[in-house]
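Quick one, tokens below. Sequence please?
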């Protein structure tokens, strides 16, 4: 069994690439890379083919991560390839559902398409979204890193329990 996870944000240059890479590192640390794979995508085509935002890459490097992902847009095929599609915020969740309805004729179930912050054990004021750091400063990029890094561990626990890994 191979589980495939897709992390999604607006442009695939800030939140979803760092979510992808922190998750990949956590998967590798647990020796699960043969049963769990991940990727990331955008709901909009603003940055297709680009590397993640330089500020995202700088933050990732400060945590020992190298981001080499090239931005891509969510496609209809993704709904049949990935077992879980994980949105960074409500806006992107709505866009995922719209793309799904247009591409394959149905919306995604809450069992396989949800907000990543659902797995954050340190929810502040019950905010379920990973904030978009694009218009912010380095502190905002660090906050996103901390959130997605926490979510990675809890999400893996969920996958282990649900799929008996």
């Amino acid at each position: 069994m191979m589980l495939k996870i897709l992390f999604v944000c607006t442009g695939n240059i800030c939140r979803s690439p760092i979510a992808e890479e922190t998750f990949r590192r956590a998967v590798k640390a647990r020796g699960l890379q043969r049963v769990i794979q991940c990727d990331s995508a955008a709901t909009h085509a603003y940055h297709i083919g680009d590397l993640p935002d330089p500020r995202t890459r700088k933050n990732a490097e400060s945590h020992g991560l190298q981001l080499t992902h090239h931005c891509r847009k969510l496609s209809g095929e993704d709904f049949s390839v990935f077992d879980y599609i994980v949105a960074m915020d409500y806006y992107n969740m709505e866009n995922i559902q719209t793309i799904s309805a247009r591409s394959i004729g149905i919306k995604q179930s809450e069992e396989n398409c949800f907000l990543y912050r659902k797995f954050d054990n340190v929810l502040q004021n019950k905010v379920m979204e990973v904030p978009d750091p694009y218009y912010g400063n380095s502190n905002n990029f660090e906050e996103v890193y901390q959130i997605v890094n926490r979510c990675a561990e809890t999400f893996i626990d969920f996958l282990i329990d649900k799929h008996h890994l």
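The chain has a mean pLDDT of 96. Residues 7 and 40 are 4 Å apart (CA to CA).
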